[in-house]
Every structure is written in C-alpha cells, then in structure tokens.
Specification:
It contains 18 helices and 19 strands. By secondary structure, the chain is of the alpha+beta class. The strands form four sheets. Strands 11, 12, 13, 14, 15, 16 and 19 form a seven-stranded antiparallel sheet that branches.
Length: 507
C-alpha cells in the first residue's frame, strides 16, 4: 500500500470528533492492507512505529530543506525500512548517515506525507486515533469478538501484531493469545479517590497496600533468564542487575511479577522520585541501589493467575516473594484502611492503593477494582511551552505551560492538549538546567520570552485543587501548582485528561 493512503485515513480521523467515524475510517484502510503491512500501518496510525525512538528530534526533522515529491510513490514497506536504517545507524559517522537517510526519504515524500511522517516519528500525530479507537477499528475490520481482540492486545502488548492476527488468522488463533513469560503485559491501572474510606466504598473487602513514589516494574523469570520491563513495556533488564538477582533468588522457576522499585536513603526511607528515575534510566550509574517491592503475580511455574481473584493471587505472591511483598493489609474496615494510609504517609510514601479482593487482573485497563489514594492531588500533565526566567533564573527556561489531554475533542481536536495553567514552583536547579538543555531540542516555535515545544514531555504536578477560569479554553485552572518531578516513564497519551480536572470542580 502507498503511504498516501494512510495519510488520507489519518486526515479523515483528525477531521472528525465522532468516534464512530474514526473507527470506520481506520477499519476501511486496515481492510486493504497486505498481511505484512498491517503491524507497520497500525504503528504509523497511532504514532508508535515498531522501531520505537529512532534518534531524530524535532529540529532535525523540521529544519530539512528539500524539495518534496509532487506525486506520491512511497510505500509503507519502504518507510518501515527507512526507519529501521535510522535505528541501525550508530557509532562514528551515524549523524551523517541519518542526515542522508532523512534527506532521501523527505525528497521522495510529498509535503503531506512528510508532515505525517514527522509526527509519526515524534509520537505526536494527534488525530484522536488512540489505542482504544484502534482496537475498535480492528474489531470492525476483522469481524472478531471485541473482548477477544482487546484481551489479545493487552496480553501480547503489541497492537500491530494483534491486528495482523485478527485480520489474517483464525478466531481460534486470536483466542489462544495468552500470557508468555518474557513477553510484557500491559499493566493494570488504578482510578482515584480522595480517602481510603471513600475507596473502600467502591471496592468493599480489599487489600490496602502502600503506594510508593517509585517506578513501575514487571519482572519475568524463566529459569535463570530474567527480564525487567517498565510500565511502557520497555526492556531495562541491563540497567537493573540488583532486581535481576532478586528475581533469581525467588523459590520458583517461572514467574511474572508486577511491582515497583525505588532507592532508599541511609535511614531506610524513600529517596526522591527523580533520584530513582535517574538510576532507573541509566546504564552507567550504580551509586544507588534499587529495591523491588511486588504487589501482584500473574504467572507461577506454568500456572496463569491473570483471571484468578486477587485473594488467590496474593496467597501465591506471599508464598513466592516473602519479604519483597508490598506492605499492606486485607480489611473491610475503613478505619483500618485510613490507619494504614497514615502509616504510609508517615514513612514518606505517597499513600495507598485499595484493591477489590475478588477482582481479576485487568491488564491495560483502568477501572474501579484498584483505587489509589493520595493526600495531595497530583496529575500527570504535558509541557506545552517554557518561559525564559528572570532574576536568578536568567538564562534558564523556567515557567512551564501545562496541558491536559482532551481525548474526545471536547475543547478542540481529539487527542490534543488543553492548557490549564503555568508554574515555576518546585523547579530545582537541576531541573532548570535539564529543561534549558532539552526543550530547545523539541522546539516548535519561539518568541523572545517563550519556547513552545512538541507536547511529548510528561511532568507530575501537585495542586491544591482547581478553579473555574475564563482564561483557558477548558474553563479550568490549576490552584497552587508545583512540579513534583518529570515522568520519563510515561508517554503523553497517558497524561490526565481535561475532563478529570474539570470533575474536581464538582467535589
């Protein structure tokens, strides 16, 4: 298939706020693809190419001065091969190789195709074709059962391969997709509540567990082979040898564990999240030791536990991980839950997660079975721009413009970000230095005072609440916003929504 057909479908999807129309447009193009093109096309349409990051930034893509083709000739396969060559370029001379490859593909692409490819590579297509919409399109194009498609996508962690199997395989093959040790699963997610007691009104009898200010990990073990994945399913095994060794010491041969990791200070308390992430994201730093805590088990020694109730999974977790189990209690007493929440906070952790004891593990889903409780509202927002500082911050990018995701297009185009406020509070010198170095690399426009950036950087913001505002298009503004930390483990598609922030007006 020619790339221009994907571009046309993407434009149709971006032009409508109707989920039904988006699904129909995507299903139409999916049904025309050759089997080998399906995973590639799905990756392009959700701005997640199979190659991942290709080592090219916004400036490198947008400053190319080439004459684009007048007529479309590029195929999906040719673009996929081009991205593979970009990833393969490394070592001495790799910058020149990438530049040559970019010029070659840009000159073969039409102007519309190049705009599309630029956004695909940067991961900011912003058509509203999020993964949930794509799953519905796969269902529509294949005629397969929606629950089966969704489960296959969650358990395989690969939407493109799920699409290929749904469209070209049998119903039995699709239904057979299950847990595979060594292949990451999309993690179960939690909703929020203001107090532990309020969370228990949702869950009933529950496991109430510490919520650490750490990094989510998923650990797979098959004999001595151990692999560790992030919440985004990135393989970081080589960066965390201490977690690998901890997994090898457990009394089982085959495991899939869900948990969190952080580093501790000299007093046994949690270090700041940014310290953990600096260690978590570095191959060279070994100054801080990461300690794992596990709160769920999905597989043990040939037995899948995904569909078992949490009560069964916790019994196996206790048996297997012992002291590496996340601290918690099982209770139906709101006072006991509140007491544990206070204990977690006193230990300098974030709060607690309240989990329904009868619920299965809903991979990739955010529902009412897990409810997180934090004493201060924190939200994951996206940086839209940064202002040059004044006073002691002269020469540094400081005040951040913050946006919330609008997945349904209530305040603009679906999948875009709605500005909800600004803040310079909470920014350490290290963060200011990092911003000043990094944001010009993803600059989209600038004035004398402000650098506008591609909306790809997630930052965790603490607020005291929100208030109604006529200044911002979403009608809501943050109150007393301050930066907690950047979240390199999260993508912009995981940012909190403008609808979630607006719901705080009713609390």
């Amino acid at each position: 298939m020619l790339l221009t057909e994907l571009v046309a479908a993407s434009e149709v999807v971006a032009a409508t706020a109707s989920r039904k129309a988006k699904v129909a447009a995507l299903a139409d193009v999916l049904s025309l693809l050759e089997p080998e093109e399906i995973p590639v096309a799905v990756g392009f349409l959700i701005a997640k190419p199979r190659q991942g990051r290709v080592g090219v930034g916004w400036r490198g893509l947008t400053t190319l001065e080439v004459a684009h083709a007048a007529e479309p000739t590029l195929t999906i396969g040719e673009v996929d091969a081009f991205l593979a060559r970009l990833v393969a370029a490394s070592g001495s001379g790799s910058v020149a190789v990438r530049s040559e490859e970019l010029r070659a593909i840009a000159s073969r692409a039409t102007a519309d195709e190049w705009r599309f490819l630029t956004r695909v590579i940067l991961g900011e297509l912003r058509t509203g074709a999020l993964e949930g919409v794509m799953i519905d399109a796969i269902v529509a194009a294949s005629g397969r059962d929606a629950a089966t498609v969704r489960r296959a996508a969650m358990l395989s962690g690969d939407l493109g391969e799920t699409a290929r199997l749904a469209l070209t395989g049998t119903a039995e093959e699709l239904a057979a997709v299950g847990l595979v040790v060594g292949r990451p699963v999309m993690p179960m997610l939690a909703s929020t509540a203001p107090t532990a007691a309020a969370a228990m009104e949702i869950t009933g009898l529950a496991s109430v567990e510490y919520k650490l200010d750490g990094a989510r990990i998923q650990v797979h073990r098959d004999g001595d082979e151990v692999r560790v994945f992030t919440r985004n399913l990135a393989d970081i095994t080589h960066r965390v040898p201490e977690i690998v060794e901890a997994a090898r010491a457990l009394p089982a041969q085959s495991l899939i564990l869900d948990g969190e990791t952080l580093s501790l200070d000299e007093d046994g308390g949690p270090r700041a999240f940014q310290d953990t992430m600096a260690r978590f994201g570095s191959e060279s730093s070994r100054d801080l030791v990461l300690r794992p805590w596990f709160f769920d088990i999905l597989h043990v020694d040939g037995r899948d536990l995904l569909d078992e109730p949490l009560s069964v999974r916790l019994a196996e977790l206790d048996r297997v991980v012992g002291p590496l189990r996340m601290p918690g209690i099982v209770t139906d007493d709101p006072d006991a839950a509140e007491s544990l929440s206070r204990e977690a906070l006193a230990a300098r952790h974030e709060g607690v997660v309240v989990k329904a004891l009868d619920a299965p593990y809903a991979a990739g889903r955010r529902g009412a079975s897990w409810v997180k409780v934090k004493p201060v509202h924190t939200f994951d927002l996206v940086v839209l721009a940064a202002e040059w500082g004044s006073g002691r911050r002269v020469g540094w990018l400081s005040n951040l413009h913050l946006g919330a995701l609008d997945p349904v297009g209530e305040f603009g185009e679906p999948g875009e970000f709605v500005m909800v406020g600004k803040t310079f509070k909470g920014l350490t010198d290290d963060l200011l230095r990092w911003q000043t170095e990094q944001f010009p690399l993803i600059e989209t426009a600038s004035t004398a005072h402000t650098v506008h950036v591609a909306p790809v950087t997630v930052v965790e913001i603490a607020i005291d609440g929100v208030q109604r505002s006529s200044r911002y298009p979403g009608g809501v503004a943050l109150r007393f916003a301050r930066v907690k930390t950047y979240r390199p483990d999260k993508s912009a598609a995981e940012a909190d929504t403008i609808q979630t922030l607006r719901a705080l007006l009713r609390e």
